[in-house]
Amino acid sequence: xRIIQKYSELFHRLNQRQRTLVLVLLGVxxxxxxxxxxxxxxxxxxxxxxxxxxxxxxxxxxxxxQIPDISEAEKALREKERDLGMLKDQLEELESKLPEQGxxxxxxxxxxxxxxxxGIDFISIKPKPGKGGKEYNELIIEIKMAAAYxxxxxxxxxxxxxxxFMAISSIxxxxxxxxxxxKTEITLTLSILLGEGNDSRGSHEEKxxxxxxxxxxxxxxxxxxxxxxxGAGQELKVxxxxxxxxxxxxxxxxxxxxxxxxxxxxxxxxxLSDKVILSEGKTRKILDMEKE
Length: 292
What we know:
This protein is α+β, with helices and mostly antiparallel strands. The chain has 5 helices and 11 strands, in the order H-H-H-H-E-E-H-E-E-E-E-E-E-E-E-E. The strands form 3 sheets. It has a 4-stranded antiparallel sheet. It has a 4-stranded antiparallel sheet with strand order 8-9-10-11, with no helix packed on it. Strands 5-6-7 form a 3-stranded antiparallel sheet, with no helix packed on it.
C-alpha cells in the first residue's frame, strides 16, 4: 500500500504532459504484456486449428467427389429393374408360345403339308432328340426328299414362316447334274425348340384333347402321278419316247410315264431322246428304247 501511495504522490507532482507520457508508457507496457502472455499463444493455436480445418474440409470434399450420387444410382437401379421386368415378361410370353412335346405329330404333319402344291417326294422323315445340356428341349428332324430346285426353294420359304422357334441347320444336296425337269435328292436337317408341356401335367389339371393330324396326301408317294405296277418281275421295255415338249413322256410296257413317276419301285429321273434313266436311292438304271 505504501508503494502505491508513494507512486501516487509522485504521479500527482508531475505536470500534465508528464502524466500523459506516463499513462501512455503504462498502456504500452500493459498491451505488450497482454499480447505476449495472452493473445499471441491464442493466435498461434487459432492459426493451427484453422489450417487443420482447411485440410479436413479439403479431404472431405475429395471424398464426396468420389462417392456417386445416391439418388442417381437409385434412379438407374429402378430403370434396370423395370427393363428386367419387361424382359422377363417377353421371355414368359415367348415360352408360352413354345410348341409342347405332345405336338410332335402335329409338327411333322405341318412339315409335310407345307409341301402341298410343289413336286416334292418325301423319302424319309426322322425325328430325334437334340443334344443334352441345353436350357430348352430340342427336337431334331432329318428330312430326305426328292425335289426340283425351284420347288425346294419355295418349300424352304414356307418353312421359314412356319415357326419362329425352328431353325434349319444343314442342307445336303446330291452333286448329280440335272435338267429343269429332274429332281435332286436333298437331306434337310432342322431343329425346333419345345416347351415342357405334355400329357403328364398335374393330376388336377384337365388334359387337353389332342386333335388328329390331317395329312392331305401320302408324303412318300410322288404327287405327280401314283406309282404304277407293270407286273411283278416283268422286264421293263421302252417302246416310245416324246422328249421334244415341255413335259417329256415315255411308253414303258404299254403305259405312258413322265418324269417323276414311279415304276417297279424306281422313280423316272430323266427322259432323253433315246433312253430313260430310273433311280432308286443311289441306284441308277438305264432303259434304252427298243429298236424296231
